[in-house]
């Protein structure tokens, strides 16, 4: 009799408490959820709430239901082709082709693996090139087929994009801010031929960029006696994907000119760059995010040719 | 004569909504956070703990699950996993719903997890119209609204009515 005054949410839970419905729905694959938005208005509203999305992510992570994103390219058009493989059904269903309209842009022709700026919680940051400057940046969710183009930021200090020597990205979830962030580090030369570095940070919820002060990124570049003596600098390895752990970005970098491999980090909480860990010895390493710990896969330079990791250490 | 749980040889009595009583060993009951809290806070000194939302058939299933998991808590996980899947096998949707409601009420996380997952696995490939019937949810969309929502994720409906 009071049904008329109840919200849409309460009405749908007449037979099953809403908290139970949430328990069940959070265990469904994304594709089923997108269809079940058509069940009723309260399910539609629920499936779109940030709280439900967080719960779904948490539940799915616990289920170990991994999806693989496979990128290749169309030999005729030279445009990238993306597909998704769900592993939880034992590879039975084969790859699912992803139709993202941006993949067919001319700027995406000749795309390669360096076009992935970072992957976090199923979100992918993509660009025609993530190692060069001035290309469009796109955030996409292969599971839901949603995507958005990241707006351009102002680079008023940059006289000429030609002066950019290298770009590095990091994309990840900043848990204390409950937000996704993209950091972009640009190495460029000034008109006086002096090398310099700038970085800015994109915040997904506000869809805006903020510049990170010079003093915060000095560790990446500069005359640092700590690394290899006067006149040396640190350069993020071009093919090094960043990894994010507890609000801190990590990249593999090397000291120029000594070639020593180090890990550089950027802490989103403190906007800080204080922590720089050095991998002992003259080693080449790649970094992977191993759950809650940072893995260093260490390759002695000798074995890099055949790509066999010699040791994996967890720190 | 009222006797406390401790004096009752580590056993307590649960009473289902339809009046059936179940004598349960304390370590089995501790699988339920609700019962654990009741025992901890000493408010369960009554002889019988009534569970007015859970019928006898469901409670028997719940206690079967709790007994297996309490007795086997340190044994092999693989054995428990096969027990869990066997336990839910061939269970109809009504029984699963009752089980998930009971697990939620009694705060038995492991049981809630497997029962909710079983329901999810059963409905994931069903058309949304059928899911509506299973959950007894009324379609409150107009045909135009429903078509618009469907259009938002048309690709997800390939192969579905």
UniProtKB/TrEMBL annotation, chain A:
Residue intervals of the F-box domain: 10-57
CDD domains, A to Z: F-box_AtFBW1-like (cd22157)
Domain of life: Eukaryota
A Pfam match: F-box
InterPro entries cross-referenced by the UniProt entry: F-box-assoc_dom_typ1 (IPR006527), F-box-assoc_interact_dom (IPR017451), F-box-like_dom_sf (IPR036047), F-box_dom (IPR001810), SCF_F-box_component (IPR050796)
Protein name (record): F-box domain-containing protein
TrEMBL record, chain B:
Stored InterPro entries: SKP1 (IPR016897), SKP1-like (IPR001232), SKP1-like_dim_sf (IPR036296), SKP1/BTB/POZ_sf (IPR011333), Skp1_comp_dimer (IPR016072), Skp1_comp_POZ (IPR016073)
PANTHER family reported in the protein's UniProt record: SKP1
Annotated keywords: Ubl conjugation pathway
Record protein name field: SKP1-like protein
Role this protein plays: Involved in ubiquitination and subsequent proteasomal degradation of target proteins. Together with CUL1, RBX1 and a F-box protein, it forms a SCF E3 ubiquitin ligase complex. The functional specificity of this complex depends on the type of F-box protein. In the SCF complex, it serves as an adapter that links the F-box protein to CUL1.
Entry similarity comment: Belongs to the SKP1 family.
Annotated SKP1 component dimerisation domain residues: 109-156
Domain SKP1 component POZ: 11-70
One GO BP annotation of this record: protein ubiquitination
Subunit structure: Part of a SCF (SKP1-cullin-F-box) protein ligase complex.
Alphabetized Pfam families for the sequence: Skp1, Skp1_POZ
Biological pathway: Protein modification; protein ubiquitination
Superkingdom of origin: Eukaryota
């Amino acid at each position: 009799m009071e049904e008329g005054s109840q919200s849409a949410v309460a009405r749908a839970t007449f037979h099953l408490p809403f908290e139970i419905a949430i328990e069940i729905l959070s265990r469904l694959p994304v594709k089923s959820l997108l269809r079940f938005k058509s069940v009723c208005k309260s399910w539609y509203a629920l499936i779109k709430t940030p709280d439900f999305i967080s719960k779904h992510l948490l539940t799915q992570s616990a289920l170990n239901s991994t999806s693989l994103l496979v990128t290749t390219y169309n030999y005729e058009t030279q445009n990238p082709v993306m597909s998704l493989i769900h592993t939880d059904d034992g590879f039975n269903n084969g790859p699912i082709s992803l139709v993202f309209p941006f993949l067919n842009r001319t700027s995406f022709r000749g795309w390669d693996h360096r076009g992935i700026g970072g992957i976090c919680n199923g979100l992918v940051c993509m660009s025609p090139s993530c190692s060069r400057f001035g290309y469009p940046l796109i955030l996409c969710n292969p599971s839901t087929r949603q995507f958005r183009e990241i707006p351009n930021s102002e680079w008023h200090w940059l006289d000429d994009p030609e002066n950019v020597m290298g770009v590095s990205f990091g994309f990840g979830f900043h848990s204390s801010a409950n937000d996704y962030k993209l950091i972009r580090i640009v190495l460029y030369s000034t008109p006086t031929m002096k090398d310099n570095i700038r970085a800015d940070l994109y915040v997904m919820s506000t869809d805006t960029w903020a510049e990170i002060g010079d003093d915060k990124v000095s560790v990446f570049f500069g005359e640092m006696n700590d690394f290899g003596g006067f006149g040396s600098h640190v350069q993020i390895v071009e093919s090094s994907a960043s990894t994010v752990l507890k609000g801190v970005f990590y990249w593999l970098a090397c000291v120029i000119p000594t070639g020593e491999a180090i890990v550089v980090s950027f802490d989103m909480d403190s906007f800080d760059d204080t922590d720089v860990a050095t991998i002992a010895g003259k080693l080449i390493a790649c970094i992977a995010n191993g759950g809650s710990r940072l893995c260093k896969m260490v390759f002695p330079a000798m074995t890099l040719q055949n790509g066999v990791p010699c040791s994996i250490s967890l720190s | 004569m009222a006797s406390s749980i401790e004096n009752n040889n580590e056993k307590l009595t649960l009473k289902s909504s339809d009046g059936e009583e179940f004598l349960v060993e304390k370590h089995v009951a501790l699988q339920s956070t609700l019962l654990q809290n009741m025992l901890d806070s000493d408010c369960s000194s009554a002889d019988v703990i009534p569970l007015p939302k859970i019928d006898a058939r469901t409670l028997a299933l719940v206690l079967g699950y709790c007994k297996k998991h309490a007795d086997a808590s340190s044994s092999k996980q693989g054995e428990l996993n096969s027990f869990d899947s066997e336990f839910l096998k061939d269970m109809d949707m009504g029984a699963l719903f009752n089980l998930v409601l009971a697990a939620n009420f009694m705060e038995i996380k492991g049981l809630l997890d497997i029962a909710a997952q079983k329901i999810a696995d059963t409905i994931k490939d069903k058309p949304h119209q059928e899911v509506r019937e299973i959950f007894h949810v009324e379609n409150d969309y107009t045909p135009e609204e429903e078509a618009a929502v469907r259009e938002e994720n048309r690709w997800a409906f390939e192969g579905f009515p």
